[in-house]
Amino acid sequence: MIDFTPFILSLKLAVIVTIILLIIGIPYAWYLSSTKSKIKPFLETITALPIVLPPSVLGFYLLVFLSPDSFIGGIFYKLFNIKLVFSFPGLVVASSIYSFPFMIQPIQSGFESLNKNIIEASFLSGKGKLTTLFKVILPNIKPALLTAIVITFAHTIGEFGVVLMVGGSIPGKTEVASVAIYDYVENLDYHSAHIYSAILLIISFLVLFIVYFINHRQRRKYDIY
Amino acid sequence: MIYINVSKKLSGVVENMELNVKIELKKGEFLAVTGESGSGKTTLLRIIAGLEKAKGRIKVGNEIWQDDKKFLPPQKREIGYVFQDFALFPNMNVLQNLLYVKKDIDFAMYLLKLSGIENLKDRFPNTLSGGQKQRVALCRALMRKPKILLLDEPFSALDEKRREDLQEKLYLFHKKFDLTTIMVTHSSNEIYKLADNMLELKYGKQIKYGDAKKLLINSKTSEKFSIKGKIIDIIKVDIINIAVISVGNNIVECVISQNEAKNLKIGESVLLSTKAFHPNIKVINENTSC
Question: Is domain A5-33+40-222 in CATH 1.10.3720.10, yes or no?
Answer without folding.
Answer: yes
